[in-house]
Amino acid sequence: MTIHEQPHVADRHAHFVGGGIASLAGAAFLVRDGNMPGENIHVYEKLDVTGGAMDGAGDPDEGYLIRGGRMFNYPTYECTWDLFETIPSLEDDSRSVKDVMDEFNDANPSHAKTRLMHEGDRIDASKYGLTDQHRQSLVRLLLTSEEQLGDTRIEEWFDESFLETNFWYVWATIFAFQPWHSVAEVRRYMYRFLHEFPQLHSMEGIDRTKYNQYDSMILPLRRWLEDRGVNFEYGHEVTDMDIVPAQSGRTVERIHCETDDRTETVDVDASDLVFMTNGSMTDGSSIGGMDEAPDVNETGASWELWKSIAEDNPQFGNPSVFADNVTETKWESFTVTLHNTELFDHIVDFTNEEPGNGLVTYLGSNWLLSTVVAAQPHFANQPDDVKVFWGYALFPDREGNYVEKPMSECTGREILEELCYHLQCEDRLPEILDDVTCIPAMMPFITAHFQPREPGDRPEVVPDGSNNLAFLGQYAEQPRDVVFTVEYSVRSAMTAVYEQLDLDESVPPVTKHYRDPDVLAEAVRAAYR
Question: Is 488 a catalytic residue?
Fold first, then answer.
């Protein structure tokens, strides 16, 4: 039956554990499609800001910070566009967030000319460099089921030479795959984005927001929710839930929270709904500074909560698979704010890439450094005379080529010195770094969702026998879709809401571009370049 046949929906409450995009999307679907009053919806967030990994903060004086940048794809992201086509933008409430993104990407299409560089030379990344053996391994991967792959690692499936091809460097630095990650996730990506396979090197299929994702997506979505009365409980860290088993299934009856000065218990009626983001890619993040290196944390609140409730409920997944090997799941990013734009201008000239055009990876870097110079301004409050760029490295525990210590031990200044070495402008230190701020961010779980896994390690969005608890985000199992995307989080939220409310509506299916003969033909041609 539909929600319109359930008058009691106005008397039910919904509780969201975590304030990331999955929870915000879930709250929006409850209001928009489920007709639940906004005042009946409660979002518990341990920080004083929503958005989770879709962040963006700071000012020109203290420096800006984005821990990561989300990329989008218009032929896919079905649930994301379904949501943001109905959320008004902050700049013009007569247009949706999606409308503003469309306009921005029409005016600023991605077309990377210098995707890979080595010792100052541009690499022709359109030549993927795959051998017959590599192509055979890719085809065999596509024909092997996830169940058969199990927890096989990428480096166990492909030979060492595959990990030295242009294709791998392009693939790994766009999606952040490491050789020890799950080859089953690579398989999912191949199916999901096969239509983009021929243009990975140019990134022409990638779409972006006008500003960082916090300003462009989170803020308008949060305002829409606040205007409808949704309650945001900041500074509330959910530490445990009372989940009572019975013959009819498991029911959440209480939620326990810690605030700065007290412990709170929230009673949950059996007819109420609980949505939990189990695990977070940015949990435990540590922020450094120009003269301070970030710490490396080993755990985070979302992981501890997931472990606590999964201990007695095996159908809730196996969080240790993802959370107990920080060495394999961490990497580091950095955000650079420049009042002195000499370094910014040098990057544009050195790479021959205009701002907003792409992602440049420096293959000679021991850290495997990459930089992204977004279209300016990248923050809504960014002055015209201030520039911002972002970068990251997949191997922060390796010693630098110029700075003789691991990136994980480096200050923001030392990270910039290492970058300047690869930009061949280290002879201009320190004047090129005058009036420049670099804020590093260490993220211990940023690729935890790629860890080798087996069926059951991720719980279903609504597990069997769960009466009022659903899981959201990157660690809830959704067939055929790919983690490390906004779409995965939004899809989990739509799935959870529609199923929990028994709505007579369908979640948009994952588009099967790989069944298009033209897509297959173009992918094969690209594999032989």
Answer: no
